Amino acid sequence: MEFAPLITTLRNGSRIEIAAACPAAQALGLRPGMAVTQARAQVPGLDIRPADPEGDLASLRSLAILAARRWSPCVALSGEDGLFLDLSGTAHLFGGEAKMARHIVRLLARAGFTARIAIADTPGAAWALARYHGHCLCPPGEQARALAGLPTPALRIDEAAAELLKRLGVDRIGQLAALPRAPLTRRFGAATVLRLDQALGRIAEPLDPVIPPESIAVRQRFAEPIASAEAIEHWLGQLTPRLAAALEDEGLGVQALECIADRIDGVPQRIRIGLARPNRDPAHLLRLLKRRIEDVEPGYGIDAITLHVRRAAPLGPEPVVERLDEEAAPDITTLVDTLATRIGQDAMWRMRAVESDMPERSLARAPVLDPPIRNGERPKVDDVRQLDRSAALHPWHPAWPKPARLLRRPERLDHVIAELPDQPPRRFTWRGRPHQVIRADGPERVQGEWWKRDAERLSVRDYFRVEDEAGRRYWLFRAGDGERAATGDLSWYLHGVFG
Prior knowledge:
This protein has 499 residues and is an alpha+beta fold. It has helices spanning 23-27, 36-42, 53-70, 97-110, 123-132, 143-147, 159-167, 173-177, 181-188, 190-200, 229-250, 282-290, 333-343; strands spanning 6-12, 15-21, 47-50, 75-78, 82-85, 118-119, 136-137, 217-226, 252-263, 269-279, 302-314, 350-353, 363-366, 405-412, 414-418, 425-430, 433-447, 460-468, 473-479, 492-497. Strands 14-20-19-18-17-16-15 form a 7-stranded antiparallel beta sheet, with no helix packed on it. It has a 4-stranded antiparallel beta sheet with strand order 8-11-9-10. A 3-stranded mixed beta sheet has the order 2-1-3. Strand 1 and strand 2 form a beta hairpin. The chain is flat.
């Protein structure tokens, strides 16, 4: 399967430019900064997607944190697509600089990243070699010789200075390094000379390292092992306030919490709880932990208990009631957390309405605490949509209530007796059990959504609400309008059950 060349785009004023291009697109002559219209004319069939600079920067920062935990304690961001790693004192742990570079490249390739690594004495030399030379291991003290043949933009100087140097015939770093410092500073400014001296190692270039966040944990050791549920509950009551205080200092709320009880025999007992929303209420955390104490097997005794925050996030905004006599909306977060500890988060959901004529497509699962749908952007003054003053239509017609339970797929009915074309059924059999209809309402006609499937271009369903002799109410339909064979085969199906 062949894939179209991929580019991402950014808006620069009234102009849409290429932000990044894949290797296949670059081989066709597409470069960042080129207008998208020119790219379309040059290469038809491009795969064009909007760029996400904020997301790219967040991913790069996450990679920097991973590198700081695995490869080097000092890792800094290098622009929008690179990282600086200080390998002083760490390369020998991976078998030397060459093996460490190969190890990093392999791990990044396994994660889907294409990387080029250059190792040099200075950050400036490493930056230039990685971007303008490729994979390179510069010997100590040889950065001047390694940089001599590279173009002057490899020094990270501004475009105006690089263009002026090129017009004067200085297009290589070696030529620039041979010029006298005083005239060079007067003509091109101190920034150009600073970058040159930093790359050659004459002036130090400090890095702004990324500091990995430390995991939050509270621990309690015991002089004598404990083995009773009452003792475990007591010490959990002592640890949760300390954990809440640590979270408050960081401005965070816990989303995933793990309690580890260290037994004397070295077999840890673990309790894991998840929260629907970030929370640091010690009473609520304690209630969730107490429900799981029965899962702990103390054995010959527990000599330490630790609460680890596995996932945390900033606390969300709290609802504010403007009027003093108005009651705030009930918060079901604590109820959701309590139920999740018993049946799991995946076993709970809410149903949301979806705009569709077909009943099976008019419902969709939503998270229990799904945030409210935000209104769209305010339309412009000359937007014709502002002329429509009518209220938005509800996706479900209020005159035709839907059943409390909608089957996953309609189930076919047998032995149906009904008068065509518009009368409800008098009798039907569902799952081998006959039902006599005593009351009915309908039909509610539903047309197929021809714009989604060609098979529904002529299909018709006539829905009826019926009640049998036992008082049970069902929602069933006939395939076809009862007059034209193209609309359906006149078979009957049960689609839902009313509460």
